[in-house]
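Worked example 2:
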Amino acid sequence: QICLSLVRLLFYLAHSPLGSIVLLDFQPRQFVMVDGNLKVTDMDDASTEELSCKEDNDCTLDFPTKSFPLKCSAVGKCEGINEKKNLFNAYRYFFTYLLPHSAPPALRPFLSDILNATGDLRYGINETLEAFEKVLHLYKSGLYLQKRPLHLKDYISLKGFRTVEGDYKCWPSYSHLGCLLSVHSAEEAAAICNSQSQCQSFILTQRRTWTGRPLASFQSSPTDLIPDANAVVYIKRSASSGERL
């Protein structure tokens, strides 16, 4: 969410009515999340000036660990230097820390492609935004889910109930107190639970993430059932033969 919001912001800056805008003091502390969207808190160090040049050798974009040769345009400006500076800063301050983690395994190759392409500046902001929007579509639609054996048949579902959160934890999790993950459906939640040897049950409620995906709470063992009209608890058949049910 943070990376996509940042890319949308940089897309706007690259195509603003004032021209391509570069953020000269590009640091994470200069941004804040407002209603799920990343905002720039300080525009004092923003500029529309692009580096003047006479030849291509005047257009090297230097960073502490990398340098990129750019073209000198016919009007004597380094082509796309503001856009590329913003994009590489997004890569080194945000993408490298956030993109490799927490995505479903099937989507990680797509995010790795974005990471590598922006790290080498092979993508401009247009291509980067297009790649992010493609991943978002796959994520929201569930198209990334590969055909696999159905796992939900291994579970008993009890509508109108939930269980007490236990001490079962996983990574990544929306809650540090338990194992809370976003899923496309109960079937995906069942597949996740089956892939974790300690998982014996999971709960789906009406809670949703920013993409509209439901949140599933995974449990290491069935606990006492609590009435909850907005929840459904799924318990492995192999774990449901005890006295609790």
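Residues 81-98 form the longest helix (18 residues). The helical segments are 2-14, 81-98, 108-119, 125-141, 186-195.
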